[in-house]
Design goal:
By secondary structure, this protein is of the alpha+beta class. It has 8 helices and 7 strands; from the N terminus they run H-E-E-E-H-H-H-E-E-H-E-E-H-H-H. The radius of gyration is 22 Å and the shape is globular. The chain binds zinc ion (ZN).
């Protein structure tokens, strides 16, 4: 920057901070994240960024539907760093009431594993390196491909790897995925410059492992809606007033 010698620092206004935050949120929800359409999508999974071991690191995430119809997600502090987690505490409380309905509800609050990978969408290569977030079913299929010496191999290798095809059918909770290997090995790109550019522009997947402070998560769960806090499970002591029913055998998980 040419103004460097004139002024070495700048004021960071609240307005700037707000603008930056919404820009980051816009990016998070936009082209940087791959949205998998219905049907088959051919992807190239990029190798681990230098310093990373896995090309598809995992986060344990809560997805919680709020009473106002919105939903929030965040990484679980209990699973990741053994710190208190408001969502896991709700699970504990619901399971302690002794009410089978509470117990079922608790299941929907449990964290789920989600993986992240840098990918090129072969149909839309102009979008560059995108982040693909996916459930453990896809992860397990991809690991099987990697470890199968006969039909698989290191599909992320920039020169000797191969593309993968992911087929999505169904919506929401009925969504199913199938994973296939492309028939032929291929380089990440035939153009050496493009390959270098893609490898250099891999996203730092570590940022998806961020753990929010407890208060921030509580705020997210309150959702800003006036009534949502009231509709969240009310705190109850273990074996509290609501516990009148016995815990059924089917409640072991
Ligand atoms: Zn948790």
């Amino acid at each position: 920057m040419s103004e460097k010698n004139l002024q070495n620092w700048a004021d960071w206004s609240a307005e700037d901070a707000e603008a930056e935050k919404s820009e980051v949120e816009r990016l998070d929800g936009s082209s940087e994240m791959l949205k998998l359409p219905q049907g088959k999508t051919m992807l190239r999974v990029l190798p681990p960024k230098a310093g990373m071991k896995s090309p598809m690191p995992a986060a344990s995430q809560h997805f919680i539907d709020l009473p106002d119809g919105k939903s929030v997600s965040f990484n679980c502090p209990r699973v990741h760093v053994k710190k208190p987690c408001p969502a896991c505490e709700m699970v504990d409380k619901l399971r302690a009431t002794g009410n089978p309905r509470d117990y079922d509800k608790a299941g929907s609050f449990l964290p789920k594993r989600r993986h992240y990978a840098n990918v090129i969408d072969r149909k839309n290569p102009e979008k560059g390196v995108q982040v693909f977030a996916f459930p453990k079913t896809i992860y397990e299929a991809l690991v099987s491909l990697r470890t199968d010496g006969q039909t698989g191999g290191n599909f992320t290798h920039p020169l000797k790897g191969f593309d993968v095809v992911i087929e999505k059918t169904g919506e929401k909770k009925q969504t199913e995925y199938k994973v296939f290997a492309a028939r032929n090995n291929s380089p990440l790109s035939d153009d050496a410059d493009e390959m270098d550019e893609w490898l250099a522009s891999m996203h730092d997947l570590g940022r998806f492992m961020t753990i929010l402070p407890y208060d921030e998560i509580t705020k997210k769960l309150a959702g800003g809606a006036q009534d949502s806090a009231q509709q969240l499970p009310a705190p109850r002591g273990r074996g509290g007033a609501a516990a009148g029913r016995s815990v059924g055998d089917d409640q072991e998980v």
